[in-house]
């Protein structure tokens, strides 16, 4: 008790310091770094960041003499000596702007900044040399993030990633998300947050969160940009978009529309070995695939409007969408069947004509009320409607050594997914004594998957009831959370707890099979960051997460690729529970080291197996027993010379999955993995309006479930030139120069041996043009943060 009393007595001697930062036009400067140093010492005693109103505050300060520094991109550093004996309000601090003028136009090109925060890593790219990239290219250069040609995103080997824009979930996955971000200009991006242990405020779904922060214009006026690009891979593609921003005294508007059109190709070879009991090959099935898909109209949009009712109340509405109604493909796949002696026994050719239109629209509304500058409440609601159809017309021509040496078969499958998601939430925050956050959220999902299957019999299409299905899914989640963050001298601590109650029902109407689950889970999080001395930060974090099954993967019915291959889901899929532990160290504010451990129980993923009785190759989405990984990651952004910047990241880890085989035995699939990424940016002239990039990415062999993935790599280069007095830019990009993203995926255990080789048409040449109009001088101070919603497709 005496010790506790002594501690409280010590804290009673602490005081606070606060102020407001503005520019030469008396406009607030948000998100500037405020540093408090002890007198005659170069060590940072306290650190803070200004909010959207330019205000900052230090609490828990011991009385004494200090040096206050304020710095941010585009302004000269502010420095002032100050003596603090009581709670002190400094008033307004004015920063002097730095300009680099080219024919009267300000061009900014700063080094991207990697900043370690208590619970995340922030990759600041605003006004940096990466601003000319699109959002997908910036994402691929973000520390700790690995991207693939087909839109795959992984962090530490896991692809269970929640992607948000300004804290709002993006209800797009894979290639759809990639196309959406490719049509988003990098000039809109302020920063990207990599959150490997998401705090309690974020829903517990997913192993990590990627939050893309887009700019919010805080100065009055109007500006915009037009972007267009021509892409040549195996076939040509075209992209065009327009972005517009307006801010009045009370009304703010932002809008973006993008259009894309092109032909996409995926090449591959599927090989299946059927083995005898002694392990020798009984037969080998080899399929040669060249999937050519046309997406003639890709429409994407983002609209946002906010209105300041008064200084304390703001309402905002918005919407995002991706629409691709003209998407179709024609696939011809020959399959060669070889006997034990290696000679060709038989052949069948599958022709697949498909249409897969898509519509995805999300709408949101929010209301913010300020009780004071440090206390507010936010209420938001979101609604998403996702609709997708996959219509396949599949014909197989068989040439077999039977009584009827040649025959054909045909079937049509029409799978329609209709998903609706609604969520509502309320969030409260108070920064008067540390930062307290709390909130409630309700979410509901209604999904319907209807598979209509018809066989051709004597020239007529006849419904096949054994392969036709209707699957209904209803899920409700009620969640609440609370977290608290406070600085104690050199320590920054944050702890939170989130509870989620889930009630779901999966109804396979065709088979009268109903799966109900009701469960309540707690998800604790904890973070600690210790600033040992100037240039040395040590951190620790722990978080528990859940990954619920994707809705479409709960459908147990078979979706056939051809007569001998199909995909099926599992209505009894269990949620995945993961535990994440991180140890962090940052040197000189630019060298970041992460030591991590991840354990997942009942992870769900796609595995493949051969059915020897039917010669079927089955792709089954199901749970495996467990997955764990541990390793070390490193990243930094360096200015090697005045003309040369380099972003470097590398990771070394061990990943192991354990699963039950078709024979009932348990197997483990694990190996050490290595990845590295180097992004080099060069300034080629004195005006700094001619820039180049040379980027390299390498991933060693890795594992997932039953699969072993081969190594891949990617070398790309780009050159960019400012034109029209800095208002325009022309650029050229060459991606995957030597086709290093070709990949082989192998399954090899017990009597299971199959593999496929794939190449996703990643080698391309892109020629683009960007033009800015309106008052571009508005672009120097901005930011946005809000809420969250929809995904899990």
TrEMBL record:
Keywords: Cell outer membrane, Membrane, Receptor. It comes from the Bacteria. One of its GO terms (cellular component) is cell outer membrane. Pfam families: CarbopepD_reg_2, OMP_b-brl_3. Residues 372-771 form the Outer membrane protein beta-barrel domain. It comes from Flavobacterium shii. It is found in: Cell outer membrane. InterPro entries: Beta-barrel_TonB_sf, CarboxyPept-like_regulatory, OMP_b-brl_3. PANTHER family: PLUG DOMAIN-CONTAINING PROTEIN (PTHR40980), TONB-DEPENDENT RECEPTOR-LIKE BETA-BARREL DOMAIN-CONTAINING PROTEIN (PTHR40980:SF4). The keyword Transmembrane does not apply. The keyword RNA-binding does not apply. This is TonB-dependent receptor family protein. Gene3D superfamilies: Carboxypeptidase-like, regulatory domain (2.60.40.1120), TonB-dependent receptor, beta-barrel domain (2.40.170.20).
């Amino acid at each position: 008790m005496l010790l506790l009393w002594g501690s409280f007595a010590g804290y009673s001697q602490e005081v606070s310091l606060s102020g407001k930062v503005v520019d030469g036009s008396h406009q607030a400067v948000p998100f500037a770094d405020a540093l408090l140093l002890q007198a005659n010492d170069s060590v940072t005693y306290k650190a803070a960041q200004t909010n959207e109103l330019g205000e900052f505050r230090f609490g828990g300060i011991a009385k004494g003499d200090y040096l206050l520094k304020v710095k941010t991109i585009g302004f000269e550093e502010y420095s002032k000596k100050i003596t603090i004996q009581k709670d002190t309000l400094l008033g307004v601090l004015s920063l002097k702007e730095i300009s680099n003028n080219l024919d009267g136009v300000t061009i900014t090109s700063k080094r991207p900044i990697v900043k370690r925060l208590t619970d995340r890593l922030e990759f600041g790219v605003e006004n940096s040399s990466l601003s000319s990239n699109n959002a997908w290219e910036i994402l691929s250069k973000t520390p700790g993030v690995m991207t693939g040609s087909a839109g795959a995103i992984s962090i530490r080997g896991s692809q269970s990633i929640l992607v948000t824009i300004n804290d709002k979930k993006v209800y797009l996955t894979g290639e759809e998300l990639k196309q959406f971000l490719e049509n988003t200009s990098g000039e809109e991006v302020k920063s990207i947050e990599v959150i490997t242990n998401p705090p309690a405020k974020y829903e517990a779904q997913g192993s990590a969160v990627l939050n893309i922060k887009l700019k919010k214009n805080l100065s009055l006026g109007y500006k915009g940009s037009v972007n267009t690009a021509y892409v040549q891979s195996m076939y040509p593609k075209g992209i065009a978009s327009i972005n517009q921003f307006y801010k009045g005294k009370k009304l703010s508007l932002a809008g973006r529309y993008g259009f894309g059109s092109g032909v996409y190709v995926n090449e591959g070879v599927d090989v299946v070995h059927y083995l005898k009991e002694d392990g020798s090959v009984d037969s080998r099935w080899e399929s040669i695939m060249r999937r050519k898909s046309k997406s003639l109209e890709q429409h994407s949009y983002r609209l946002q409007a906010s209105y300041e009712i008064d200084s304390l109340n703001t309402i905002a509405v918005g919407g995002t969408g991706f629409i691709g109604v003209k998407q179709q493909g024609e696939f011809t796949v020959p399959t060669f069947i070889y006997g034990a002696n290696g000679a060709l026994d038989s052949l069948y050719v599958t022709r697949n004509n498909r249409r897969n239109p898509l519509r995805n629209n999300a709408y949101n509304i929010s209301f913010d009320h300020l009780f004071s500058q440090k206390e507010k409440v936010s209420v938001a609601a979101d609604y998403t409607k996702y609709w997708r159809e996959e219509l396949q017309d599949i014909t197989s021509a068989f040439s077999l050594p039977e009584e009827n040496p040649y025959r054909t078969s045909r079937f049509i499958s029409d799978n329609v997914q209709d998903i609706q998601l609604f969520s509502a939430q309320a969030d409260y925050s108070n920064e008067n004594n540390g930062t307290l956050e709390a909130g409630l959220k309700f979410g509901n999902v209604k999904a319907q998957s209807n598979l209509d299957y018809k066989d051709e019999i004597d020239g007529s299409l006849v419904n096949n009831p054994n392969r036709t299905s209707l699957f209904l899914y209803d899920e409700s989640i009620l969640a609440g959370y609370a977290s608290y963050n406070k600085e104690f001298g050199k320590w920054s601590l944050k702890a939170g707890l989130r509870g989620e109650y889930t009630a779901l029902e999966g109804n396979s109407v065709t088979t009268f099979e109903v799966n109900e689950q009701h469960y309540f889970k707690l998800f604790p999080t904890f973070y600690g960051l210790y600033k040992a001395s100037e240039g040395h930060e040590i951190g620790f974090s722990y978080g528990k997460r859940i990954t619920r099954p994707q809705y479409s993967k709960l459908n147990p019915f078979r979706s056939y690729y051809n007569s001998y291959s199909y995909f099926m889901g599992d209505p009894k899929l269990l949620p995945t529970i993961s535990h994440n532990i991180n140890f962090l160290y940052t040197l000189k504010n630019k060298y970041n080291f992460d030591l991590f451990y991840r354990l997942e129980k009942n992870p769900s993923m796609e595995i493949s197996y051969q059915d020897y009785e039917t010669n079927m190759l089955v792709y089954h989405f199901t749970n495996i027993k467990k997955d764990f990984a541990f390793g070390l990651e490193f990243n930094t952004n360096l200015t090697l010379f005045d003309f040369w910047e380099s972003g470097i990241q590398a990771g070394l880890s061990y990943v192991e999955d354990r699963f039950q085989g078709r024979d009932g035995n348990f197997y483990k699939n694990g190996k050490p993995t290595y990845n590295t990424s180097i992004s080099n940016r060069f300034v080629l002239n004195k005006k700094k309006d001619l820039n180049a990039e040379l980027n390299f990415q390498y991933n060693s062999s890795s594992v997932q479930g039953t699969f072993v993935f081969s190594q891949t790599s990617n070398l790309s280069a780009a050159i960019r030139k400012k034109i029209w007095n800095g208002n325009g830019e022309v650029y050229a990009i060459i991606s995957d120069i030597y086709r290093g993203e070709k990949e082989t995926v192998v399954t090899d255990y017990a009597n299971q041996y199959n593999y496929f080789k794939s190449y996703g048409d990643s080698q391309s040449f892109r020629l683009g043009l960007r033009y800015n109009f309106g008052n571009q001088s508005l672009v120097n101070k901005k930011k946005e943060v809000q809420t969250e919603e929809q995904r899990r497709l």
